[in-house]
TrEMBL record:
<dbReference type="InterPro" id="IPR001647">
    <property type="entry name" value="HTH_TetR"/>
</dbReference>
<keyword id="KW-0238">DNA-binding</keyword>
<dbReference type="InterPro" id="IPR009057">
    <property type="entry name" value="Homeodomain-like_sf"/>
</dbReference>
<feature type="DNA-binding region" description="H-T-H motif">
    <location>
        <begin position="39"/>
        <end position="58"/>
    </location>
</feature>
<protein>
    <submittedName>
        <fullName>TetR/AcrR family transcriptional regulator</fullName>
    </submittedName>
</protein>
<dbReference type="InterPro" id="IPR050624">
    <property type="entry name" value="HTH-type_Tx_Regulator"/>
</dbReference>
<feature type="domain" description="HTH tetR-type">
    <location>
        <begin position="16"/>
        <end position="76"/>
    </location>
</feature>
<dbReference type="Pfam" id="PF00440">
    <property type="entry name" value="TetR_N"/>
</dbReference>
Amino acid sequence: MKMKYDPDQKITRGAKRTLLAFSETMLTLLGEKPFEKISVNEVCQVADYPRATFYNYFDDKYDLLTYCWFRMRKEVHLDSLSQAKSSDSFLEAFAQIYNLFDAHRELLVKVVAHNPLDSQLVFNFTNYFTRVFSSLLAASARPRRLKTPVELVAQHYSMTVLSILEWIFLAGHHVDLQTAESYAQELLAPSTTKALS
């Protein structure tokens, strides 16, 4: 999850434009071809930046991919949810990620058409958000009656949530947010109410 680019540093307008161009280009290309067939050269050509500029920000295309996921995470303000009550933060985080996927449904359909669910790309995406969601839940959980380590419970929740969202958005099942939330509550009950209360 460590990127060459430090997102905590102060960013100039020029750097912001450059990072946006590279990440938008990568997402566009992912809707056109498999990740394995995308090269740094192609990203630079389509984004209209030299390779040297790419390497000022990223180590390789995997690093750029991590930045794309970072941007998505920031788009829905997941990090701020750890300040909320734990049960509220769980449901709010689920809704935020659902809404993010829903807003990008057309792109996701294109990406999955070129990158199957067992591809390196989907594994990278799922792994990134599992760690983010686990970290969020571990930070906000109040383990009153848990014998299981909070980190393990958080990992279980995050994997369940991402499995639901993968099933809905990547496997093409049309389910609204309310139904998706009911799936999450049913799959995680009664552990959800015990561990996040």
